[in-house]
Write a structure and sequence with these properties.
By secondary structure, the chain is an alpha/beta fold. The chain is built from twelve helices and eleven strands.
Length: 268
């Protein structure tokens, strides 16, 4: 630990922490991270960093082997993994955001801890400005109903911050964000647009199989060819990466107004 108590060796157990550190120009502090961090932040693959398990399965030995002075983890947690983190005795920052304001607070917290408060405020301001730009563009457009899911079995709706991005992109989420639901409930809501962003699946969600297995052939989104997959890390990483998710959502909800975006795939 340095004399001013600023951490110099950080272990990141979820991609959001790694992305935030990269955004504020402090990626060099990361000495170990998960394979999912590499997916969303490829530059972390260089520099001899250790790959460790995430905040669902990490072991104390992995943490200690990296000789960190700070561990940052975020939801989803498993109780056993949290116990392993605490047993390591290393200073621990645990994040559990739900909505966009929580994410801004997490960015500010990490930036403050690593003595980059001003950079953190700049990152937050850029995110807010970009989201507001989309709100302005979609304010006069029709509000299409949208169902976003982050997991298929059990079927779980995407988190509240995704619902906020959907609203900014000109849509209105059906169902309860972050809650379990069923194929029957989604079908009954009959959304205009369906979006799947499964945790850990990248953009490899089997859209045709979902429709077939759930008997959704008569659902409005399916009949109109508005069934999409958005890259997992663009919607499920509570970090500046969400702006890429916002662009993809806007292109899915209002393709007549927004260009095809990276990470967006439509049913064939």
């Amino acid at each position: 630990m340095s004399s001013n108590h600023t951490p110099r060796r950080i272990v990141c157990l979820q991609p959001s922490a790694t992305v935030i550190l990269a955004a504020i120009g402090k990626l060099e502090l990361v000495v170990a991270c998960t394979k999912y961090c590499v997916d969303v932040c490829p530059e972390v693959a260089s520099g001899g960093r250790t790959i460790v398990a995430d905040s669902w399965t990490v072991k104390r030995e992995e943490i200690l082997a990296a000789k960190p002075d700070l561990v940052i983890a975020a939801v989803p947690y498993q109780e056993k993994a949290v116990a392993e983190i605490l047993k390591s005795g290393v200073r621990f920052l645990g994040l559990a955001p739900r909505a966009l304001p929580d994410i801004y607070t997490d960015i500010a917290s990490i930036a403050g801890i690593v003595s980059a408060f001003d950079r953190g405020q700049q990152v937050i301001a850029r995110m807010q400005q970009e989201i507001e730009k989309f709100r302005d563009k979609t304010r006069s457009l029709p509000r299409l109903s949208v169902f976003c899911e982050e997991w298929g079995k059990p079927l779980i709706a995407s988190q509240p911050w995704v619902a906020e991005l959907v609203e900014a992109a000109g849509g209105q989420c059906v169902g309860t964000p972050g809650a379990k639901t069923s194929g029957e409930e989604v079908s009954a809501a009959d959304p205009d647009v369906f979006v799947a962003a499964w945790c850990g699946a990248g953009d490899r969600v089997p859209l045709e199989k979902i429709v077939r297995d759930r008997g959704w052939e008569k659902m409005r989104a399916v009949k109109n060819g508005r069934v999409y997959c958005i890259r997992d890390e663009f919607l499920n990483t509570p970090a500046p990466t969400l702006i890429s998710g916002l662009r993809a959502l806007a292109a899915a909800i209002h393709p007549e107004q927004f260009p095809q975006a990276a990470g967006l795939k439509c049913i064939t």
